[in-house]
Amino acid sequence: MKARLNGIVALAIGATVIGAAGFAPLTPAQAQPPPAAGQDSGRVNSQDAQDSGRFKNRDKDKDGGKDKEKKNTVSKALAKPLKAAQDAMTAKKYPEALAHLKEAEAINPKTPWDEHLINEMYGYVYAHTSDFPNAEKAFEATLNDPFMEQADVPARVKVLAQINYQLKSYDKAIEFGTRAVKGGYADEEIYTLVSQSYYLKNDYKGTIKFVQDYVDNEAKKGQTPKEQTLNLILSSCVKLDDSECTSRALEKMVTYYPKPEYWGNLVLTLFQSKSQNDKSLLNTFRLANEVDVLKRPDDYTEMAQLAIEQGSPGEAQHILEKAFQKNVFADARTQDKNKRLLASAQKAAESDLAALPKVAADADAAPTGDKNVGVGLAYLGYQQYDKATDALSKGLKKGGLKYEAEANLLLGIAQLKAGHKDEAVKAFKAVKGDPNLERIANLWTVHAKQV
After folding, report:
1. 28-239 placed in CATH 1.10.287
2. Dihedral, CA atoms, 153, 156, 161, 166, nearest 10 degrees?
3. Are 112 and 145 in contact (CB under 8 A)?
4. What's the CATH code, domain 273-448?
5. How far is 85 from 93, CA to CA, in rounded Å?
6. What is the tens place of the pLDDT at every residue in 389-419?
């Protein structure tokens, strides 16, 4: 069993994890705020500076403009260095601007508006010189003072989230990102940033919760979650060594991105289930064969043996013929072994197929549906899907079945292979009472919607 589990898929889960957190990092340019050193609040008015030595806030509220203008006026002592700083910023002479700002900062006393304007200008200069620690400090100070316009809060929160991410201050990046989410102004970049921050600080449970909530909201809006977003959940589950979480994440992956590597890893988790029995194991093989992730010679051999044992020699013949067509059996010994098994399957299938009409008649006369289900299984193995559907439907209608869950599963497979997708999905949804088969049926439903 262990050998098959290691080889059934082309990629192991570990390989899936490699790229799971592979979001492109934010660039310094993205972390820089728009020019905010007073262009809309506290811009240096040169004429005012010449005439009165004061900076005035150009914004006025609706019913207190004069009072606000008076309150938001730069102190006379700071007018000259701040004007010089403003000019240097406009000329992109950031070291010179910084020197003038430090000059202004050293002047006391300062009003709260002086402090606000200095921090705005500091933030702008530091951001444009990639001094993110000091930019973060300055911009956070302005966000928390009473002069920040509410209309400017979303952009400032986003900048702070970005800067803290650059600084690997993941807790603060999460704090500001979450504020944007709760405020209703988070964009995709913010969601990505917060998700990555949780992951990079090794809070995998936090990653799963945050990203899953985001994915659920996307689904409610009819939007398809990005592959890298789902991969982040998958990677977190693997990091937690949580097999159930990993399996659920892989189901999401194949639902939206049915790539062979995702299907292969998902089928791997089915084989790893400790509650597998021969019936569920054969049905796992059926699903693996359908999505084309059977890889090792032993997989084909074991599936054929199980099919013969459970009354489907036609299926055994088909799977072995497929293996030989794909040149799965490389060495002579394995080829000889499976040639003998194929000959045995062909002989059994020939005898079984000849007897099927009489067996079907006897099944129709039986009081319960088990024999009809057996006939349906046989026809399914011979790829006579309409006859399989008819026999399985009769068996289910009669009732009294020993394995009703499997009968519904087989009916769904037959209907899907016959091209009746909607009916197949109904049959898959009717699979109840066996957790392993329920899960397999759910995956057949996912696959049915993709073919």
Report:
1. no
2. 180
3. yes
4. 1.25.40
5. 9
6. 999 999 999 999 999 999 999 999 999 999 9
